[in-house]
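To start, one record:
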Amino acid sequence: MTSSSDRSLAVDVQGSKSYEIRTYGCQMNVHDSERLSGLLEDAGYVRAPEGADGDADVVVFNTCAVRENADNRLYGNLGRLAPMKSKRPGMQIAVGGCLAQKDRDTIVKKAPWVDVVFGTHNIGKLPVLLERARVQEEAQVEIAESLEAFPSTLPTRRESAYAAWVSISVGCNNTCTFCIVPALRGKEKDRRTGDILAEIEALVGEGVSEITLLGQNVNAYGSDIGDREAFSKLLRACGKIEGLERVRFTSPHPRDFTDDVIAAMAETPNVMPQLHMPLQSGSDPVLKAMRRSYRQERYLGIIEKVRAAIPHAAITTDIIVGFPGETEEDFEQTLHVVREARFAQAFTFQYSKRPGTPAATMENQIPKKVVQARYERLVALQEEISWEENKKQVGRTLELMVAEGEGRKDGATHRLSGRAPDNRLVHFTKPDAEVRPGDVVTVEISYAAPHHLLAEGAVLDVRRTRAGDAWEKRNTTGTAKPAGVMLGLPAVGVPAPLPAPTGGCSAH
């Protein structure tokens, strides 16, 4: 971890140099980028304006290793920065994240103009590595093999004034054959419950009203400390924090989804009626080949229990199409589960080889044409179900937490956007009263589309909140509005200002 003397040295030297962070991949990377921003600002850097596109003194790539062609994308982006760097004396480029952990020295060999390469376990070293590269005038490659300090001890620049990530664990003990994350993030390590609750209480004290508990396998929390009910106890403890209005979590694993967690969700008022439960496949043989430790019957049993305990819960999922060896019968089993589970939304992925995973070398790789056709059938079915499920919301009265930057057409339509308790996106008519992100409005749903809802009538109630106060304070005290990050994973439970999901690491 960076020492105070290292930080003061960086502050003295750097002055007001600007930085830009480009983030790819999962929620872990998004939260890590908040920490990287905090570290750099703690070291005296200032954030470059939104849309800087490389026009900064330091450009940091926080990479993902699980997406197809992730390395090609990185080297393409690095190549575009090379001429900019040659024209800008003192400019530095750093590469971190999972691809950096995996490729290490390869990055500097392929892109010798990169100044710093750091891994997933030592993000706290970035300011010192940048300074060392500047003084020594040579690239610094430092990859730690294990976690040096739990990253939540690092300074953090939160992207939102009213919604926040809170990591409860890092790493993963699963061995899914399509996923390289455990090899790059390491074995699961859990934070002390007291530290987690102290962080949440501090965030609430700053005005945050929604938190998302984050872990590579979030509901396995407790395995590292020997308490199988630790996660449900944590949810219940969150329910006792005054001022905390909404609690979400992502991503759980069906293997660890126990009855005590369902009971805690149902009985804790501020735990939202929303669940993101990765399926990956509905076929038992494919699940076995994936090394997923549950089968179709177990998965549907969890869904049934959740619906019985929380009737209005919105359940979303991840599905991989075309895993090696998947037959038409296997794929039909996936369609069967989709029909039975009636997901509010599914984040669907065409299987592609991830270098370094067992699945990449399996026999019976499915032809691209077959995968594409199956993918289109799955998407068509899920679109139909999503729309039908959204239509059930018409006529309901819902409390929305007003969001920042969710509706791309809100300016033209004179609407605002917010998230319902179950995380559905709702666009609503702008009321006469001032409404700020973080405030809460009550609306009646009048129309449903597959991916959003509309409340076209007048807003029924506006409740100004401490979270809205926090947003207003941040945006009226000269603090630059946070720039978005490029996401690659479903935004289930993601704090509202983050952009819409596009898919990504199906690690869970």
Q: What stands out?
A: The chain has a mean pLDDT of 85. The chain has 16 helices and 21 strands.
